[in-house]
Design goal:
By secondary structure, the protein is mainly alpha-helical. The protein contains two helices and no strands. It has one domain.
Length: 66
């Protein structure tokens, strides 16, 4: 009985390691994207349209479209 249990444990370890190697090589897809960096927060100072509008308001303070 002890030999059977040892064989099952070794087989489980071998299957686990085989799956890990295959996943690292990219042969099996995973749910999470690879090397995906989270998107940066998009602030108003990164928005080109926002910056153009600020520049327009600075150059023409009396011209308000609001």
């Amino acid at each position: 009985m002890l030999k059977f249990l040892l064989i099952v444990i070794l087989l489980a370890i071998a299957v686990y390691l085989l799956v890990r190697v295959i996943q690292r090589r990219g042969l099996i897809g995973t749910d999470r994207p690879r090397d995906h960096t989270p998107p940066r927060p998009f602030g108003p100072d990164d928005d080109d349209e926002f910056l153009r509008e600020l520049e327009r308001r600075r150059r023409h303070p009396g011209d308000s479209d609001a």
